[in-house]
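Students often ask why we bother encoding 3D structure as a string. The short answer is that it lets us treat folding as translation between two languages. Here is a chain of 120 residues written in the first language.
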Amino acid sequence: MNKTIQKYIYLLLEVIILIGFGAFIFFNKDTSISYYFPLMQKTYTINFIYISLFWFVISHFGGYMLCAFFNTKVNALVDAYQKRHENISIQNDSDKAKIAALEAKIATLETALESALKNK
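And here it is in the second language, the structure alphabet:
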């Protein structure tokens, strides 16, 4: 799949998720949640929007960190592959240089043999 198409699909998916989250918040804007905090021996009430936004931000941050972790692993593998490829390429170049040097020596020996045969 083309990378630009893939980026647009991910962007469209993110926009759909944001719209869905906004609609969820809009329809539950008057809802409040009560929870008991045992250390303080108190019951607290908080608006549902704040908890939803908190979990939304935390989940996006966690997703970003997870993707960054996998991206660093993939980049490390790509770098290792590029170094291996460069080493193979350098080795092939050195082998080609050795072959060229040997061919030059053979050509020199052939010309020396021809001149020696002519002088005899």
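Translate back mentally: The chain has a mean pLDDT of 85. Keep this in mind for the problem set.
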